[in-house]
């Protein structure tokens, strides 16, 4: 079902907005033989103590579509579901990473969103990262896949788990529809939007959050980039400083994430990765999520931004801050040193 949804999503894309160019580190393998891969994985799983290396070598060097083909062949060959078999054979962070790879990007995003809202309490950090960084086109596919997977509307779960202006912003971002994102900021319009942002925030007492939400949730990336550039000479504070002055908590974090993604999405992810690996033990959940969800999207450019900003390659940083088979899998997804 999810696959059909994604196919429909792609159709929408083709006559909707322009598809973003991709900069993957994981690309389809040449001379691909799913039956051979499936047999090798079966042997690796049955090996005493499990041959993780073979599983990593295969699954981190195949495209998502190829992994699905391997899963199909595996089930035919071993009469078992590959995901179930991997769950039994692997554990900890490596298991989470491999199971993530067995999902499509949209299925993975949908399940990460679901997990962030599961049970008591909410993992706001994850929720903000995914909702504020995905494009309108990606969000439309995620919503459809979410409904297929969990039989519930993403909007309903977000509304049930958040409150106040934070909820309003996230819902505005989730409730995209085909043809949205058309905020026109060309020419004199960009000055008007600039003045709207300024009047609603820094200029007045308190903040007219509704106006900020309605402008920022449009995600008209090139237009808003122009607006924020112009805003610098319009307001004594740039957009990020204005956000920090005007709002607090999760709402502040969300607006900042949006602006950072409008300005340079790959730098945003590079900084998140760096932050997650700053302390001695890496925040493996964050590292796994970014590496798995971006490896077939833009991880190559994230690597470039990482090196430029942090003067150290992503590869070396992963090598220093993670260990074991989990590290091997991450390094393979990373695809090389810079
Ligand atoms: Ca104000």
From TrEMBL:
Its main location: secreted. Keywords: Annexin, Basement membrane, Calcium, Calcium/phospholipid-binding, Extracellular matrix, Phosphoprotein, Repeat, Secreted. Gene3D superfamilies: Annexin. One of its GO terms (molecular function) is calcium ion binding. GO terms for cellular component: basement membrane; cytoplasm; nucleus; plasma membrane; vesicle membrane. The keyword Secreted applies. PROSITE patterns: ANNEXIN_1, ANNEXIN_2. It comes from the Eukaryota. It is found in: Secreted, Extracellular space, Extracellular matrix, Basement membrane. It holds the Pfam family Annexin. The keyword DNA repair does not apply. Belongs to the annexin family. A pair of annexin repeats may form one binding site for calcium and phospholipid. This is Annexin. It comes from Sphaeramia orbicularis (orbiculate cardinalfish). The lineage of its organism: Eukaryota, Metazoa, Chordata, Craniata, Vertebrata.
């Amino acid at each position: 079902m999810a696959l059909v949804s994604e196919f429909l999503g792609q159709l929408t894309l083709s006559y909707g907005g322009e598809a973003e160019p991709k900069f993957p580190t994981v690309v389809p393998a040449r001379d691909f033989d799913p039956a051979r891969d499936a047999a090798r994985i079966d042997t690796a799983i049955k090996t005493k103590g499990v041959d993780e290396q073979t599983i990593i070598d295969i699954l981190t060097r195949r495209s998502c579509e190829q992994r699905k083909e391997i899963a199909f062949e595996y089930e035919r060959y071993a009469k078992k579901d590959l995901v179930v078999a991997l769950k039994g054979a692997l554990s900890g962070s490596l298991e989470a990473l491999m199971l993530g790879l067995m999902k499509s990007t949209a299925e993975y995003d949908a399940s990460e969103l679901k997990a962030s809202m599961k049970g008591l309490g909410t993992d706001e950090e994850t929720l903000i990262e995914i909702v504020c960084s995905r494009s309108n086109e990606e969000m439309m596919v995620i919503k459809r896949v979410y409904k297929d997977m969990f039989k519930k509307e993403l909007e309903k779960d977000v509304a049930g788990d958040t409150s106040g202006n934070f909820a309003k912003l996230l819902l505005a971002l989730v409730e995209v529809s085909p043809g949205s994102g058309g905020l026109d900021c060309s020419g004199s319009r960009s000055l008007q939007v600039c003045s709207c942002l300024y009047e609603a925030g820094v200029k007045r007492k308190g903040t007219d959050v509704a106006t900020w939400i309605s402008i920022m949730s449009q995600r008209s990336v090139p237009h808003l980039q122009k607006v924020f550039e112009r805003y610098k000479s319009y307001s004594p504070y740039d957009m990020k400083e204005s956000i920090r002055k005007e709002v607090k908590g999760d709402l502040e974090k969300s607006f900042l994430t949006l602006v950072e993604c409008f300005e340079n999405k790959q730098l945003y992810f590079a900084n998140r990765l760096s932050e997650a690996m700053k302390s001695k033990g890496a925040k493996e959940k964050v590292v796994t999520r970014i590496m798995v969800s971006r490896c077939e999207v833009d991880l190559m450019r994230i690597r470039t931004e990482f090196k430029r900003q942090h003067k150290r390659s992503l590869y070396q940083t992963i090598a220093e801050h993670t260990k074991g088979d989990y590290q091997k899998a991450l390094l393979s997804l990373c695809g090389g040193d810079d």
